[in-house]
Amino acid sequence: MPHAADDTRKVQTAVLDGADSDRPVFLPYDHDDFDDFMRTRTREDYYCGTLLGGCGKQLTAKRYTDKKCHFAHRPPVHCRRTRTDEASADHLYIGQALARWLAREGQRDTDITYPDLGSGPGGAVEVRFGAGRRLIRVQLSHLPVAAWEAARAELSGTHKNVQWAYGPHSGLGHGEAQAAGHAVRFTCRTEGGNRVVYVGTQDTDRTVEWTTLDRCRLTDEGIAVPRPVGSAATVVFPLAPGSVAFTVTDEETTSDGPTRLLYQADVQPTGAAVVRARVSLPHSVAPPLAHRLHVLDGTPRLYPLGAPAEGAWLIRADCFTSLPTPTDSRWPGLRPAPVPNPAPEGRRDSRGFTAGTTRVGGEYGHLTPQEFSKLNRSQRRRTGRR
Question: Which residue ranges are recorded for the region named Disordered (predicted)?
Fold first, then answer.
């Protein structure tokens, strides 16, 4: 669906129950997702919340088919809110997620604040618990090092235990990881018309392994983030971009946490032999097809899982490129599965993107029902099927 270029001025987030509420809500862009969103709601109970830096006035949910659905102020409009995009309520989502998680960890008496660091609420989240003597501080906005050091000293002097965590724009997580060996990170993603909170551990090589709070536990130090499959190994090998190719087998995929899938694959680094390994990729990328040769992009990480037996390696990557040819001289040992036979001409779907056991075409090429089931909602919509 095309979106108008100037829609960035529209309001995508609001709060429920009143102007000073801390209950955030995100309005999906797409009109189909809008209908799902409104199924259990009215168009009236939304406010340009003061904790969003807003005016506190009521908002109306607007549905469009030719541009982004959004919240709109009711005239006359006199609002000085500066952030209205999908990430503008992330501090509230993080605060609410931490409160729910701490309650599950047995901490019933929590106090959540959103300090104004100079540009309105949203620069940080502070959650106090344990009779107010413990604190989790999530630094979201950029903070100069001198101000960060001063804040650490001040908070450490008034609390028994302070754990710092960092958002995607603070600029401080890298320094914490270098000094302490790791840093706790927070981010939010739009999934299924909702903003979902993720927490992760950033290593000294700046890689971050993401999971959800319900998989974490509370320790004396604060949030303990579980390590991914294979991370118990003390050594993780970063691989050069574009140096590793793979072909997937027909074996069934398995889950690698809430946001990733594990594919059984034959893998060959440039200049080395073919090995059997598991390749971990995000749910959000289209599944690699068995009849294509794929190259891992970015900086994949290699995790030795134990003895050098078959399948004793895990490679985690964020994306890959499918080559246009089934073979490549750089990886002579890899042979993809045969290309599936196309459907007879009279049975082909007239749409440019098809899915099924005997159909070929579209952005992702041949898709079996199993592969089709792994596409996300947006990708499925482009097939013309639900």
Answer: 325-386
Give alpha helix (H) positions in the chain: 31-38, 90-104, 145-158, 173-180, 369-373, 377-381
User: Which DSSP string do the residues of 302-370 spell out, in sequence order?
Assistant: EEE-SSS-TT-EEEE-S-EEE-SSS--TTSTT--PPPPPPPPPGGGS-SSSS--SSS---STT----HH
pTM over 0.85: no
* Amino acid 238: pLDDT: 78
d(CA 317, CA 297): 7
* Residue 325 burial (10 A CB sphere; 0-12, 13-18, 19+): exposed
Per-domain boundaries in the chain? 5-73, 90-224, 229-337, 340-386
277-314 residue pLDDT tens: 999 998 888 899 999 999 999 888 887 665 444 446 88
Residues 6+ apart with CB under 8 A from 158: none
User: Could you give the CA distance from residue 26 to residue 12 in angstroms, rounded to a whole number?
Assistant: 6
Residue 214 DSSP code: G
